[in-house]
Model the fold of this input.
Amino acid sequence: MSILLISLIFGLVVALLLWQAYFLFKAIPDEDRHFLDSPALGFRLIWPLILLCVQHFAWLVSEKKLSATTAKLKKAGLDYALNAAQFVMAKYIAAIMFFLFTFLLLGVDDQFSFLACALFLIAGFMYPDIWLREKANSRESEILRSLPFYLDIITLSVEAGTNLTGGLTQAVQKSGESALRTEFSRVLRDIRAGKTRADSLRDMANRAGCAALDGIVSGMIQAEKSGSSLGPILRAKADQLRTERFLKAEKKAMEAPVKLLGPLILFIFPTTFLVLGFLVLSKVLQEQLINWPPLLWAYSWPG
Done:
């Protein structure tokens, strides 16, 4: 009878928890994502939990933290995929999930398991920031690679008689999908929405967070204010970017032997010395130049 009573109480508690969880998720307002991008796979897998945490715990995050996270998301080109509060809540959820996975796998029976759980908790909290930083660096590299080509198109359009807006339009129409094309498209949308061209270009430079693009935007705005020709300025900037890219590639090529020295010393050289040492030792033992019974016995034992 007691077992039946305990089972009923346990089932009632589980049912109440499920009922409460249902109402918690039902209280989340619907999000209109028709004009938004799809987030990454990891965020989509835990998206209901992210929305739940944003609904109930977003007020705990400071405005300073949200502003800094928004700037990082803009630099990575993810500000149309998720907002700052969603990203911060994803960090806490990832930390808890990493901790629970390690706890279920190892437990906390000894000091090593407790240390592993703590390390995975920290790793889960830091992993979204590392992923976001890699996305931002990759996007910045992509912008720097494609920027000279876009400047060439804008230069040709401006020298052909169109204004800067027409040059940006031609650059967007004549190029493939890329991060810089997306930024120029946003500039054109802002201009059509009524924002000035200078403000639209400044917003693009702030979003990208790229020093080279910031300098080019400053040159465009200054040339537009002074009334000077944009063609020579943009052509000089494109040549400068190509030269800098060549110098950077040359620098990386010169750094490659130094970076390879560590793996060579740690992995390649010991293996090579073991192989050569075995061959030399075999040759010495075969010619009986060393008369050491333990070595001779070990060498002749398989026969």
